[in-house]
């Protein structure tokens, strides 16, 4: 429940970033029309692509992790004794937490993939 709230809060923050980028787009495009500021327009499109890919990735990874965890739990459900019982209880939780961590860090991963992150000095 708490993980879902955190996940949704992160998605809402990204939606707000998209809305603010759209609202400031005319100003950024006007500044990009000045000779020598060609990177402003490209930066805006790269930022919008990053935000939409982040939302898409977050929307895919958590349900996919939940489905995988359910398959693991169902496969281990036939075990009646031994280590299989412990695995059937613990592994789905670890899988969901791992996918949650990947989903929360999706913006950073896409930023690194696209090369749109802050440049190190």
Spans of 5+ residues with little confidence (pLDDT < 50)? none
Structural class: mainly alpha
Number of strands: 0
Mean pLDDT: 84
Number of helices: 5
User: What share of residues is helical?
Assistant: over 70%
Shape summary: elongated
Q: What percent strand?
A: under 5%
Rg, Å, rounded: 20 Å
Number of domains: 1
Q: Distance between termini?
A: 40 Å
**Secondary-structure element pattern, one letter each:** HHHHH
* Main pleated-sheet profile: none
Keywords: Membrane, Transmembrane, Transmembrane helix
Transmembrane segments: 12-34, 55-74, 80-104
What does the model show?
Helices cover 81% and strands 0% of the residues. The chain is mainly alpha-helical. The chain has one domain (2-114). Helix 1 packs antiparallel against helix 3, helix 3 (39-75) packs antiparallel against helix 4 (83-104) and helix 3 packs across helix 5. It is elongated. The two termini are 40 Å apart.
Summary, kept brief:
The protein is mainly alpha-helical. It has helices at residues 2-23, 25-32, 39-75, 83-104, 106-114.
Tag the structure with descriptive keywords:
121 residues; elongated; mainly alpha
Helices, strands, pairings?
Elements: H1 2-23, H2 25-32, H3 39-75, H4 83-104, H5 106-114
């Amino acid at each position: 429940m708490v993980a879902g709230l955190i996940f949704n809060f992160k998605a809402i923050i990204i939606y707000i970033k998209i809305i603010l980028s759209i609202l400031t787009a005319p100003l950024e495009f006007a500044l990009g029309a000045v000779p020598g500021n060609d990177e402003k327009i490209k930066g805006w499109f790269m930022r919008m692509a990053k935000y939409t890919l982040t939302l898409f990735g977050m929307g895919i990874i958590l349900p996919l992790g939940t489905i995988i965890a359910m398959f693991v739990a169902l496969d281990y459900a036939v075990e009646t004794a031994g280590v299989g019982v412990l695995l059937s209880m613990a592994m789905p939780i670890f899988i969901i937490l791992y996918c949650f961590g990947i989903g929360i860090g999706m913006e950073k991963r896409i930023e690194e993939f696209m090369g749109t992150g802050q440049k190190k000095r």
